[in-house]
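SECTION: protein entry
WANTED: fold as tokens:
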Amino acid sequence: MLENRIRELHAAGRFPEAATVAIEGYGPEIFSFLRISLCNQADAEDVFGIACIDLWNGICDFRFECTFRTWAYLVARRAQARFTRKESPYRAQDALSAIPYLSELEARVRTATRPYLQSALKSSVLKLREQLAPDEQMLLLLRVDRDLPWLDVARVMATADGVEVNDATLTRVAATYRKQFERTVAKLRHLAEAHGLLSET
């Protein structure tokens, strides 16, 4: 299992290998997550590069308080937030060039993911989702497409919203996002009915 392999390599202090396994394993879904979230190929590529650098540099400090997969999403969301606020301290490609192996790994994962994105982004449902607010799209992506548990959804969404959560508040925050999810699903269903994709009955 991917999580176990990353944990084994991490415990052995083999951080570059752990990061490689993580980026190869979770990179495609993280990149597609960013592409859908940002609605811009070039921006998604830049943020993915930043996220890969952050993961590579930060993996030694990861404490497995959540799954590595969830942490990878948190890293990506923080990279996206910095990019959106123009606070990124570096251009991804410039920084990646300093680590040739990581640069090749990032490019390989990103390039291999493109064909899937080109077909997936054409679906009618994804086009309907584009009519939703960004946080509603994010919520559907994490819960429906990625099947993250509610506590992990809360961690990622709270990071995106700039909310600090801890173990004491996580359950309450998750319940709030769950209610928002129910409203978002109802809204998406209404849009689908209006476009003739669902029967009103």
